[in-house]
Design brief:
By secondary structure, the chain is mainly beta. It has two helices and seven strands, in the order ααβββββββ. It has a single domain, classed as Sandwich (Immunoglobulin-like), CATH 2.60.40.790. A hairpin with a 2-residue loop joins β6 and β7. The radius of gyration is 21 Å and the shape is elongated.
């Protein structure tokens, strides 16, 4: 078997997902406001339960998957070990102000992922008059 080496610099300039492995399936993300918080329903055909990643950073929710890009072969193993991963964004949006970011949770159920964004009750009904200094 011939090994093909792809320089990392070239990977940044190609449409990797439509070039390698025949492209990718269309994902679907739905957001619904419920009584206790927001529910983000994520469907990605062909993705395994443990392959979805969910991160919260600087007031944003990022839902993505990691694709192995460069692989190295081990002499003792037949399979390739991924040495470099490329993130593929599925959804990325600003979190509403009424979300409790410390309590965001996610679970896999019935073939799809559900990310729950609970409301922050501390901001509910908050009102304050701010005096202007002169």
């Amino acid at each position: 078997m011939k090994t093909i080496k792809i320089p990392k610099e070239i990977l940044a300039s190609v449409d990797l997902f439509n070039t390698l492995n025949g492209g990718r399936s269309q994902s679907r993300v739905q957001v619904a406001r419920q009584e206790e918080g927001y529910e983000v329903l994520v469907n990605v055909p062909g993705l395994q339960a443990d392959q979805l990643q969910v991160d919260v950073s600087d007031g944003r929710l990022w839902i993505y998957q990691l694709h192995p890009v460069l692989a190295r072969r081990s002499a003792s193993r037949e399979d390739a070990e991924a040495s470099t991963y490329l993130p593929s964004s599925i959804s990325n949006f600003v979190l509403p102000n009424d979300v409790d970011v410390t309590s965001i949770s996610a679970r896999y159920q019935n073939g799809h992922w559900l990310v729950f964004l609970p409301f922050n009750d501390k901001t509910k009904g908050f009102r304050k008059h701010v005096e202007i200094e002169q």
